């Protein structure tokens, strides 16, 4: 007979207690393993750059300083590029999710005779592409170089997201669509009043994917808008700061760096400290947004069910 004991007002068996102890211990260790790289990055970003070269930084900075953040945030163009990144993320995410959902709804309908052909055409683009040079020539011929829309239009349809949303829509009960057609609803009415409300979990997930991509993207800025400072994004500006830091450090001698460290002056940055600081600055907006979307990830997959 399994013995039981009273704990916190409830009777718990010894087997359950041992299992819970093992389970909680394992999950705590897993959380520590997952959080350690991020906490270590925070510690490096708050530590004196010359001291960080010695290594040994774990969860707490050894020589606390705000200089790394002051150095990065002192760039005059950083605030404006931050606003461009926010604008790009908001417009790009909304446009991409809406257009991708509309295409996904279209190819999920059995009455659409070209659904298989269109699906295959989209999927092929995941495996084959024209390459960097043809893509650049296409963007140039579309007169999008040097414009804000080069951030939005090329990525308006994401094939992977298209497949995810289409699979979700196909799980919605067909009875809802039949009822809508009987009531005289057209495709747009059905899409906006039935499909979108029922697809909030998958749309929230896809929105997070797209938003992270838009927020972290900098290579398209380098390719198409590097000569347009007014269209520069936060990630591109941070990348330039890191390059300047690399160039500055390479021009210094090791003796000079350690001399600055020994004098107690915190006036030097290193690529490692700049990289850690940039990682924290770029991650904060996504971390702030994620909790509001997390609840949609665990929504039931039977939202399309119809009560009998």
UniProtKB/TrEMBL annotation:
Pfam families: BPD_transp_1 (PF00528). Keywords: Cell membrane, Membrane, Transmembrane, Transmembrane helix, Transport. InterPro entries: MetI-like, MetI-like_sf. SUPFAM superfamilies: MetI-like. It is a multi-pass membrane protein. Coiled coil: none annotated. PROSITE patterns: ABC_TM1. Its main location: membrane. Residues 82-293 form the ABC transmembrane type-1 domain. GO terms for cellular component: plasma membrane. It is found in: Cell membrane. Belongs to the binding-protein-dependent transport system permease family. This is ABC transporter permease. It comes from Lederbergia lenta.
